[in-house]
Amino acid sequence: MAEKSVKAGEIIARMDRIPIWSLSYIFIGILGMGFLFTFFDIFDINVSFIQTALTIFHVTSPSSPEIGVLLGPAVLLNLVGYIIGSLFLSPMSDRIGRRNMLMITMAITGLGSLYNALSNDYLNFILARTITGIGVGADLAIVNTYIGEVAPVNGRAKYTSFVFLFSTIGAGLGLWLGLLLTTPPAPFPLGLPFALGGSGFLAVNGWRVMYGIGALLALIGLILRFNLPESPRWLISRGRLEDAENVVRYMEATAKRKIRELPPLPSVIPPLVIERLSYKESLKAIFGNSRYLRRLAVLVPMWFFGYMTVYVLAAGLTTILASLGYPPPEAGIIASFGDIGFILCALTIIAVGDKMERKRWTVISVLFTIIGGLIIALAKTDLPLSFIGSMVLFYGFNLWVPVSYAWSAESFPTRARATGFALTDGLGHIGGGIGTVVIASLIASLVAGGISTGLAVEVFLLIALFQVISAGIAVGLGHNTSNKRLDEISP
């Protein structure tokens, strides 16, 4: 066994010395397609839910506060599904492999989206959102685990953000297709002049088409994932050294075509090889080790409070703006411009995400969230300024996410990495669910007292408050992982 462990350490050292992405860039695209669908599913409800509520939930007005109340449980149960998938499905990748579970999770997600497209009442709608959430929760955990295990030491945040960039495309599709397919035409910038949701089939079924597109995207992602290689670190952890060496040999050959000569081997750190691993043993690896338990105690509340802000804005900004008196098409346009900030945040982390410790990004992120919310609140009828505010807001509440994905995956050992990520991200999503219900109810009660600029400022500061708490936890208690070898950070 000792000889096997040394051999495993040598293979990992060979992988750790590769300073660039050494798989085909096509694989980033394949993983990115999964993120594209996942975030399409998260954001497609933002604009389209108003039409859904009017057509099958019998709400009488597009500006009714009742829409926000109905949105809360829909998002909450989607997140409940997310938590179930994250906690109970993604840890299976520690047992049966990252690649196998990535195909299973994408299939579940696509079936959930198809169910959404066919639902005819509130109960079936929220059940479909729950099933979709199960697939999404597991998928996000495994994708981030996989990226962390194959990316170079100095680029884990960078390549996590490359995949995250696809999520911005998915979010943009969810927002803009929602405007195109579920809102009536209106002169820009009050809406889209060419919007199709005002008459005919799409006037009552545009939202169904949205979820049908989601199911199609999931099918494409599933087919592409058959080409993914298994994570060498996972293969090594299960004693499959020959298979792992074949993948690493391919990675070395790919890297040499780009940089000709590889750096010297770093020191060999023999990993723990466990040929049979149960979920119980993965949990024991975390809860039985004070180092990983402390990290869990920091990362869970960081995600919990951070997601309270993220999900209120990601799933509900259009509804929030409509409840503050904006015409729904205008509210949808303002929210949709936010995707530009979303894209810019991914590009920022690609460029400089590994230059600074992960926890410090949470502070920068929350500052932009506050500034963006205040710009929207103070812009009143100045739409160009509202668009800028939306871009800044989306830049802020998303900036910390890809870095923290990398941080969470780095914080646990290979034998329990997917389990550890699932616990932090999955339990953290409870905050997202609570946030959508509690904050929606608070906003509804505030709006009942009359709409004013001061009220809008209060609303956006209230939403940002939870991200402030998240950043305080990360900076005050968080550990350092940037530019360190995985087996040094999490042996």
TrEMBL record:
Record localization: Membrane
Pfam family, one: Sugar_tr
GO CC annotations, alphabetized: membrane
Transmembrane parts of this sequence: 20-40, 67-89, 101-118, 124-147, 159-181, 209-228, 296-321, 333-352, 361-379, 385-407, 427-449, 455-477
Primary localisation category: membrane
Record-linked CDD domains: MFS_SV2_like
Keyword Transport: yes
SUPFAM superfamilies xrefs: MFS general substrate transporter
PROSITE patterns in the record: MFS, SUGAR_TRANSPORT_1, SUGAR_TRANSPORT_2
InterPro entries linked to this entry: MFS_dom (IPR020846), MFS_sugar_transport-like (IPR005828), MFS_trans_sf (IPR036259), Sugar_transporter_CS (IPR005829)
Protein name (record): MFS transporter
